[in-house]
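[job 0417] fold request received: cyclin-dependent kinase
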Amino acid sequence: MSDENESIASNKSVDTFVKDINKRLSLPTDLHLPESFISKQLESPEFMGPLSRASRRQSLSEIGFGRTETYIKLYVLGQGTYATVFKGKSRLTDNLVALKEIRLEHEEGAPCTAIREVSLLKELRHANIVTLHDIIHTEKSLTLVFEYLDKDLKQFMDESGGSLHLNNVKLFLFQLLRGLAYCHRRRILHRDLKPQNLLINEKGELKLGDFGLARAKSVPTRTYSNEVVTLWYRPPDVLLGSTQYSTQIDMWSVGCIFYEMVNGRPLFPGSSVEDQLKLIFSVLGTPARDCWPHLEIPYSFPKYVRESLSSKVPRLDRTAVDLLERFLCYDARKRISAVDAMHHPYFEDLGPEVLTLSDDESIFSLPSVQFFHFYPKYNMSKH
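[job 0417] inference complete; emitting structure tokens
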């Protein structure tokens, strides 16, 4: 064999080997493996055998995972009490990433919200859930490396002049339900759904983010904190102190977000728990005392009569209003589930194929599903 043919054969064998490494370590296909790592593995027959957890961890470290120097910080995207989020770039893929750097207090260690977010996101792989690519743990910080998305739903609505095109409302809502259905099948409650925690890229793909308050709920009767979900998106039973909730807590939030995408403003923008309940009751009617027999209602409210939700969302047809009403039920047990909502007639025009996609497939992989791109100043009120 000539030197040229040997070189071609060698390149093919290396390419095959790299693909095998990517598959065995569950690495992204666009990852640039360091040449030193490839050379070492080619010379190591042990790699071809079954991978132990320790050897897998060592291989990932040698590639560059878990190392601060693997990522370039570009600029700050946001800052909170315990964490700063940077827009960054991965040296391994050249892709943009979001770096959530959590400061560690020596007295307290990692915040429980960070530990919870890591433990849950490590197990979640879905087209409509933000991907956690890497975790970097140093003495002073814990950095979570996420896929980068351009903006959140709140920013998207603001740039669109408020209300969204009804086609895009439907696509965003379906993707939100897909991500939630995946979580709920695994008994994971998000518990903090709001437009700021729903991330969107330029394709129109929506992904659930910020799982800091999420919980894995393995026992249906277990009690949880009622100090969850931003006030405007919190169901009334939780506002009144209920801790015996399940996946239905997220479905009320979905209803509030659905309304907000259609009308361009929050449905119940309360300033306190009492004000929040008053706003809810003024629209959905004051509930009877036996609506929540296990809860005390420490406030006194007028006897509000239920309004027709169709008058609040004139852009929606009767089918869409029916779905909205099914999200906003006082009785948590009667709220529609994420899976049942995906099968609601409101989504019929998306076609049956959207219900058979694998977890890692985007709805935009279907030619029949089209996102409407538009100029931010475009008036959506009649569409």
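[job 0417] notes: The mean pLDDT is 80. Residues 268 and 318 are 22 Å apart (CA to CA).
[job 0417] exit 0
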